Amino acid sequence: MPPIDPAANTLLWFKRDLRVADHAALCTASHSPGMLGLFVWEPAVHGEGGSESGDCSARHRRFIAQSLAALDADLRGLGGGLLQVHTDAVAALAAIHVLWPFGRLVSHQETGNTVTFERDRRVAAWCREHNVEWQEFAQDGVVRRLRSRNGWSKRWDARIRRPVHGVPERLPPMPALQDRLVIAVAPGGEPLHPAGLEQSGGSAAAHAALDAFLECNGETYRKGMSSPLQAADVCSRISPHLAHGTLSLTTVVDALGRRRDRLQGEPPSPARSRWLASLRSFEGRLYWHCHFMQKLESTPGIEHRNMVRAFDGMRESDFDRERFERWAAGQTGYPLVDACMRMLAATGWLNFRMRAMLVSFAAYPLWLHWREPGLHLARLFTDYEPGIHWSQMQMQSGTTGINALRIYNPVKQALEHDTEGSFVRRWCPELAALPREWLFEPWRMPADRQQHFGVAIGSTYPRPLVDLASATRAARERIAAFRRQDAVRAESAAVMERHGSRRSGIRQRGERPGSARQGKQVPASLQIGFDFGE
Predict the structure, then answer these.
(1) Helix residue ranges per DSSP H, 100-202
(2) In Å, how far from its chain's centre is CA 256?
């Protein structure tokens, strides 16, 4: 048997790009005489033995496993295949290199958490040591080693509006390594959620969600995205697919543009106007998606530390474990807060306004530092995207220094966005019998009315964890005192210079003007964030 020529072999490392369509690394690897597709189940990244100590949970592993099964089938249909191993990434590369020497590693760039950032550094060092060329491709508008936000929006436009990469016609056959690698064992299957309410992974599901939004569901998107009842039907629901890479951002922008072109060719009508307004709002969120990810790419420490370090010590020593646990369990005594947390736990999804309210409630009335609530939510969100998530946790907690405080009143939000109480009744069934008069503030109900409706506040449903008015007032006063400090003002100006949007005509709602050019405020831009695909 002739020796293997390393220069002829390319290892394609799939990370959060689990697709074959619009995949620059796959297109490049497909031209090599030898190619191997690889996914590494990394204990430090994906958890081990059911561990949820980090930001990955069984929910994420289920979505990834479904997506990998679909990816493997797609690769095999092209003549290739996918090798899955369960170990450290460097250990996987080293073991494969012994049996199947390769001269090139190709992958997409990733804006992940601290664990993947350090992992990539180790991979780069291993490649240098073994004379392996590592070629990384951008797959979104996030720019590595960005020195200034000036001109960033133009770079985003250029990257995202490029032509979509086609799927290779044929791939080199997959080398037979599965039986020769001791580490070639994927983790055991995760049981599906018994309620069957979670979104499924895979590119077919991704494209189905995008098509449904652009052709059917998106007409009332702009109007209905704030409602916890309507949002699940009118939002795109593509955010988990973008987070795990079963769909590319360029593909979404391309499809959106083609749909808009068709609409603009139609005669004027109310439906056409609604569609065009909704698509404008949706496109704005695609921009803001990368805007927030760029913050973590440029300042990785914001996953763990306050963006403005002068806020250090404001909440940390006051962390109340009971408050956190009751918030996390949906047992705060505030029905809309509890309904939102319960829906999220059951489905992995919640519309943005309700997500922001959950964080606001934790940050202000409960006065919880954002890190532990952020980890809890990260494990629940199927669409967890580190760059968006940690930027938003800080923004909604008031530690960025450049955003106006957003303190959501859960009673007011319920009255505005769950007017008949259907959402609260569904997810807090112990309150289902209550009339709207008492539904959002059940603690105000007289004892005889509680008995009449079969509800006992403090027994069948908890009393409010805090008094909303006094707790919110105290939070405002404490954070205002910090914001008046010279150190906070100075750091806030530096944050604005580093992270503020320069895009003409669009400025994040509530973002204070700094050195960046001011454009008109666009309230709809508030609705991005955790799930920009609203």
Answers:
(1) 114-129, 152-160
(2) 20
Q: Is the pLDDT of residue 248 over 90?
A: yes
Q: Using one digit for the tens of pLDDT, what is the confidence trace for 256-272?
A: 999 999 999 999 999 99
pLDDT of residue 189: 53
What is the domain partition of the chain in residue ranges?
A: 6-139, 203-300, 306-527
**pLDDT tens sequence across 430-458:** 999 999 999 999 999 999 999 999 999 99
Q: What is the pTM of this model?
A: 0.91
H-helix or E-strand spanning residue 480: helix 468-483
Average pLDDT score, the chain: 88
Contacts 24+ apart (CB under 8 A), 367-370: 367/315, 367/318, 367/320, 367/323, 367/471, 367/474, 367/475, 367/478, 368/315, 368/319, 368/320, 368/323, 368/324, 368/327, 369/315, 369/316, 369/319, 369/397, 370/315, 370/394, 370/396, 370/397, 370/399
- Report how far residue 333's alpha carbon sits from residue 29's, in angstroms, rounded to the nearest whole number: 55
Q: Within 13 Å of residue 102, how many CA atoms lie on the same side as its CB? A: 30
Cβ pair 85, 184 in contact under 8 A: yes
Amino acid making up residue 108 = H
The answer regarding whether domain 306-527 maps to CATH 1.10.357.10 reads no
Q: What are phi and psi of 93, to 5 degrees?
A: -60, -45
Q: What is the pLDDT of residue 512?
A: 35
CATH architecture type of domain 203-300: Alpha Horseshoe (1.25)
Count of beta carbons in the 10 Å neighbourhood of residue 458:
10
For the record, the structure tokens of 123 come out as: 């991979």
**What dotted CATH number matches 6-139?**
3.40.50.620
